[in-house]
Amino acid sequence: MNIAIIGYGSIGQRHEKNCHSLGHNVDVSSRHESRKLTRDNYDLVIICTKTSEHLEDVKKNKHLSGNFLIEKPLGATYKEALKIKKELVGKKVWVGYCLIFNPIINQIKKILDKKTLGKIFFSQIYAGSYMPNWRKGDYRESYSANKDEGGGVELDLIHEINYAQYLFPGHNAVAYSTLEKVSDLTITSHDLAFFVLKQSGGYVNITLNYFQRFAERYIKIYGSKGTLFASIIDKKIEVFDAKNRKVYGKKFDFEYNQMYIDEIKSMEQYILDKDNQMDILSLDQAILDLRIVTDKK
């Protein structure tokens, strides 16, 4: 395939490397790298600029292809996401929630589908790490630190909002939410987000933060027949029965980058009509995710 990548930060560089490894031809559009597109049309366009620039980049490049992969979050606000959907009517579009391709998330999905835990009462999803350690350079100059550029822990870690609905599909409602700046980080964006969703799998608490020095990213699910604990960082899942006996334990061995490779491969199958749209990666789902985290703004 001929692929255009719009934006060349860390994720744009990752996509270029992965697309080349899969045998695709790649052009990059980047102001900072002085790189320009060379074709009038492409099999796929990947948008991975700052979140606040997604809408304008979609408008500028929508004529280049009938297929788009847009990095999460879809837009900086719910209203921007609605405008992006309008711009891309009739096109095949996925939103880049790479954790949907994480084998840990998919194994949890299989366990839940088998009703191993019985009726689910409550789930806790947690992601906390120290934002200044995320990337090279001064964290205060990153888009994550700036609210006006689409920064904020609720947007950077919107993965958790998304895969919560993958694990527990169906009607959902926000029972409670709060977004705050509570730490001493020199940022204008939110560094703490707390959500309680009422879903088919009972209540789901999602807590996100930018300021935790010891990184954690885990999922706990409590049911009538047992409990599940999964660590995305430690790459493991444990399941305990109603008598607290361990009935399942697995340590996963996979490279982090494989999620991004599988994402491109899956998008390729969708473009070639060899696979259906994954609803959890759709525009409508991405819009719903933003409706949850931005309170429709």
Protein architecture, described:
The mean pLDDT is 94. This protein has an 8-stranded mixed sheet with strand order 7-8-9-6-10-11-12-13, with helices on one face. A 5-stranded parallel sheet has the order 2-1-3-4-5, with helices on both faces. Helix 2 packs parallel to helix 3 (78-87). It starts with a strand and ends with a helix. 38% of the residues are buried. It has 2 domains: 2-96, NAD(P)-binding Rossmann-like Domain (Rossmann fold, 3-Layer(aba) Sandwich), CATH 3.40.50.720; 100-254, Dihydrodipicolinate Reductase, domain 2 (2-Layer Sandwich), CATH 3.30.360.10. It is built from 8 helices and 13 strands. It has helices at residues 10-21, 54-61, 78-87, 103-113, 153-156, 159-167, 258-271, 283-294, and strands at residues 2-6, 25-29, 44-47, 67-71, 92-96, 120-130, 173-180, 192-199, 202-209, 211-223, 226-231, 236-241, 246-251. By secondary structure, the chain is α/β, with parallel strands linked by helices. The longest helix has 14 residues, at 258-271.
Would you spell out the secondary-structure blueprint of this structure?
Layout: E1 2-6, H1 10-21, E2 25-29, E3 44-47, H2 54-61, E4 67-71, H3 78-87, E5 92-96, H4 103-113, E6 120-130, H5 153-156, H6 159-167, E7 173-180, E8 192-199, E9 202-209, E10 211-223, E11 226-231, E12 236-241, E13 246-251, H7 258-271, H8 283-294
Parallel strand pairs: 1-2, 1-3, 3-4, 4-5, 6-9
Antiparallel strand pairs: 6-10, 7-8, 8-9, 10-11, 11-12, 12-13
Helix pairs in contact: 2-3, 3-8
